[in-house]
Specification:
Length: 171
């Protein structure tokens, strides 16, 4: 368990040049706290202790601004950078070695008790403000740009860009 946590913190440090130490990341960064508390909530959820699981998830949301449903499946070494406003729904699955930036939603588009949230492959990057909605698959190694809205499957190693910006005439 200790080596898994150490590996996780080292991964965070490799992504963030501003991080000065593993202690700083473990104690002060919201992403690792949210992941740790999610692991606790997910354990309770998998043992059908739904109320306690949701309580831990609510405490995590209050502490970090990151909302991960206890039923969501999170892979190893997920980095949630500047995580405020991240929402990961109940049936979402996130692979290993992914990075998610602030304001990302992995959400559903219906209320039926079925698979209704995205499945994210390994080594996927999801940019700030992106919304991935419905039971779509993001293939391994794909990159979702900032503010992109994704409703369909994305093939592996593809880049999806958000709404294009443009410079208006100054007149």
């Amino acid at each position: 368990m200790f080596t898994v946590m150490l590996d996780f913190l080292k991964t965070y440090k490799s992504y963030d040049p501003a991080a000065k130490s593993l202690w700083e990341i473990a104690i002060l960064y919201p992403g690792p706290k949210a992941i740790f508390l999610h692991r606790c909530a997910n354990f309770l959820y998998s043992h059908r202790l739904f109320f306690l699981a949701r309580l831990v998830a609510e405490i995590s949301r209050c502490l970090t601004g990151i909302e991960i449903h206890p039923g969501a499946t999170i892979g190893r070494r997920l980095v949630i950078d500047h995580g405020m406003g991240v929402v990961i729904g109940e049936t979402a699955e996130v692979g290993d070695d992914c990075i998610i930036f602030h304001g990302v939603t992995l959400g559903g588009v219906k209320f039926d008790p079925v698979k209704r949230h995205p499945t994210v492959g390994n080594k996927v990057m999801i940019g700030a403000g992106a919304k991935v909605l419905g039971p779509v698959l993001l293939g391994d190694g794909c990159r979702i740009g900032a503010n992109a809205v994704v409703f369909t499957d994305v093939a592996p190693h593809v880049v999806v860009l958000g709404p294009p910006s443009s410079v208006l005439d100054r007149k």
